[in-house]
Amino acid sequence: PRLLQVGDPDSGWAIPWGLWHGAILEVLRDFDGDLIMHNAGFDVKMFEHWSGVELPRHRIHDTRVQAHILNPNEPTGLKWLAERYVDAEAAQAEKALHGLMRMNGWGWDTVPIECTAYWGYGCMDVILTSRLHQAQYPRVMAEAPRAYDLEMATVWVLTGMERKGMQLD
Questions:
Q1: What percent of the chain has pLDDT over 70?
Q2: Residue in 1, 56, 38, 24 with CA at minimum distance from that of residue 130
Q3: pTM for the whole structure
């Protein structure tokens, strides 16, 4: 990984993994709150591959899964959901970064770690994910808590299958 993003509904931090991975792991070991992610299966798989640390599945919430339960016929991309349910301008940081990436011929693996637009994009992702969780989670718990538990359990089964080498779509 290049950046690890952490935050809450009001603040986001993008932390260079290569420089700070020890501090990141120490903070995660001491943190006992919920972990809110969008597309948690992917993020957990990547984090655990790079860190060797298993995250507590029972404390992870996935806003993509929540969105799918609430509106199964709608897209589940973070920016689409955030523009619809959080802020109409939610995708601006992504648009700015993509413009720079096109202009400079960068990919996700080559965008310079010092690029402020890259950091802004990462920080906004955690803020948007946190706010989306605030908007969706109460509804999911009121309308379909068992479906959410089942979907989250399925995420972890499928993630384990992918880690063993099975290609899933």
A1: 99
A2: 38
A3: 0.90
